[in-house]
Amino acid sequence: MSTDLQHLKDAGIKHFHHSESTLKAKRDEIKKHYIDPSLKKVSSHYEDKPFLTALLGLFFALSAVPIFSFLAFVLGATVVVGGTALAFSLAILSAVIGTASLFLLGALTIAAVTAATCCFWGVAAVAVVKLVLHLTSASDLPSGLKAYQRDMHALLLGKGKDNGKSVSFEETVKTEGTKE
């Protein structure tokens, strides 16, 4: 009797280890093919345009619950109402989903306004802190303001790839001033 139980125990442990290795392989495959490339893309987008990435991230985070609630409601309403007569259920279903979509529109509007407000106040706070830091660490006011302007330009508009030739005011004045 104990050999039969030992055999079943060994088979169960072997099956468990096989399932565990299969799950680890699938997890690693999903991480390699989906998660890592997505993280690299988001990271590079954040490096190029941090303000836009923060705004979109906040919007997606704030709108995930209303969207999933809406989808769950639509699925539930379809299952519940779908059991009745076809014409009657389609009429009720369209009215119910239409009403729910109005609630979704309101929730997404609130999420967008909240995300924009959070980003605005976040950028405003960072701007004030950076201005104070640049002005206190600069040797004179113009150099502090120029450093602040460069820093804020990179923060708000991103470092981006410059396809054209950038023009410096000082270089243009020097070049234009030498021509007679």
From TrEMBL:
Pfam families linked to this entry: Promethin
Keyword presence, Transmembrane helix: yes
Domain of life the protein comes from: Eukaryota
Keyword terms of this UniProt record: Membrane, Transmembrane, Transmembrane helix
Transmembrane parts of this sequence: 51-73, 85-104, 110-133
The protein's name: Uncharacterized protein
